[in-house]
């Protein structure tokens, strides 16, 4: 069987150091991948004058599996978010953000295990109808939801629940106010739910969901929702397990998938060997699961969990005093 080639985008700021950490850990776990390194973000802008060079797009299309560090999109006019561009370009309609408690973090809870499945290309993030009036006093944007888009994402969430032995899917909406867009999403979610009688199906308004996630997070298992709500809720969920440093993300389409750290590029600590690489290590675990390498994924997860629990060479955000390379070595020692 041919070796799996993975496209790697190291990213900006702390990206290169945390990606190197993940690649070393994959190697230590016995993964025999080939890697093709390409640029995006500020690194690409400096070299090529483009945030997302054609070579990068072509390589992602060819290899179909990508591991990426955080990217910086310069703030201001004329720069579209690279993440949004990639999602549209490759039809990465499903954003999967799992959060799981790790003993030893400073999180307020110790038994969280929630997956947020977020529609990735429609809703308020479709970029449709963005207008600002000539006098600058009025702005508008359009939210677009299609039946096909809603059906794809909700079906994806239920299939994930079945595959991972999950018990419950909660469809999150605002159909009481956004009667057209959120209403269509909820209608389709109810239809899809009927096809999966073995899974408990619930629905919840987004504001109530926020409150319940903070008060009784154990009520949730798999959450499925539209783009904007999913963006907010998945960060809230990350907060339940210790922050964005503990949260990976996958962007999955019909024939391509991008696995990433969901936090920013943290330029203030770049190059200082301080960053916690857990988010991108967990993203590489998601990648292994996607490639049907669940056993290897579980070995790495156990090693990371043990390092964090024992406090052996952990980074500052985990209560330790060590850096990226020490943390990485601590995981490798366990593998």
From TrEMBL:
Enzyme Commission number(s) = 1.1.1.42
Q: Does the keyword rRNA-binding apply?
A: no
Q: Does the keyword Oxidoreductase apply?
A: yes
Provide the protein name.
Isocitrate dehydrogenase [NADP]
Give the UniProt record's GO annotations in the biological process aspect.
Answer: isocitrate metabolic process; tricarboxylic acid cycle
Q: Which residues cross the membrane?
A: none
**The organism's place on the tree of life at top rank:** Bacteria
Q: Which intervals of the chain form a coiled coil?
A: none
Q: Where is the Isopropylmalate dehydrogenase-like domain?
A: 5-331
Q: Which Gene3D superfamilies match?
A: Isopropylmalate Dehydrogenase (3.40.718.10)
A GO molecular-function term, please?
magnesium ion binding
Among PANTHER family, the record links this protein to: DECARBOXYLATING DEHYDROGENASES-ISOCITRATE, ISOPROPYLMALATE, TARTRATE, ISOCITRATE DEHYDROGENASE [NAD] SUBUNIT ALPHA, MITOCHONDRIAL
* InterPro entries named among the record's database cross-references: IsoCit/isopropylmalate_DH_CS, IsoPropMal-DH-like_dom
Q: Which SMART domains match?
A: Iso_dh
Keyword annotations from UniProtKB, A to Z: Oxidoreductase
Q: Which family does it belong to?
A: Belongs to the isocitrate and isopropylmalate dehydrogenases family.
**Per its UniProt record, what PROSITE patterns does this chain match?**
IDH_IMDH (PS00470)
């Amino acid at each position: 069987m041919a070796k799996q080639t993975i496209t790697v985008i190291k990213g900006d700021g702390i990206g290169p150091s945390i990606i190197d950490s993940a690649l070393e850990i994959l190697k230590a776990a016995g993964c025999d991948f080939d890697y093709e390194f390409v640029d995006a973000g500020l690194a690409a802008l400096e070299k090529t004058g483009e945030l997302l060079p054609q070579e990068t797009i072509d390589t992602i299309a060819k290899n179909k599996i990508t591991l990426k560090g955080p990217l910086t999109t310069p703030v201001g006019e004329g720069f579209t978010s690279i993440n949004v561009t990639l999602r549209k370009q490759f039809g990465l309609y499903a954003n999967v953000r799992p959060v799981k408690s790790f003993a030893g973090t400073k999180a307020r809870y110790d038994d969280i295990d929630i997956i947020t499945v977020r529609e990735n290309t429609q809703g308020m993030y479709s970029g449709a109808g963005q207008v600002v009036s000539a006098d600058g006093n009025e702005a508008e944007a359009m939210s677009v939801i299609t039946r096909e888009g809603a059906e794809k994402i909700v079906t994806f969430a239920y299939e994930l629940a079945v595959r991972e032995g999950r018990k419950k899917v909660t469809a999150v909406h605002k159909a009481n106010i956004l009667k057209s867009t959120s209403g269509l999403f909820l209608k389709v979610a109810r239809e899809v739910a009927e096809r999966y009688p073995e899974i408990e199906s619930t629905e919840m308004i987004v504001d109530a969901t926020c409150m319940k996630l903070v008060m009784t997070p154990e009520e949730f298992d798999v959450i499925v929702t539209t783009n904007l709500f999913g963006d907010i809720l998945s960060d809230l969920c990350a907060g339940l397990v210790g922050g964005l440093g503990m949260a990976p993300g996958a962007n999955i389409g019909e024939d391509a998938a991008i696995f990433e750290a969901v936090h920013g590029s943290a330029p203030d600590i770049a190059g200082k060997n301080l960053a916690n690489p857990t988010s991108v290590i967990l993203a590489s675990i998601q990648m292994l699961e996607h490639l049907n390498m669940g056993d290897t994924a579980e070995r790495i997860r156990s090693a990371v969990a043990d390092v964090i629990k024992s406090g052996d060479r952990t980074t500052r955000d985990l209560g330790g005093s060590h850096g990226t390379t020490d943390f990485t070595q601590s995981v490798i020692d366990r593998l």
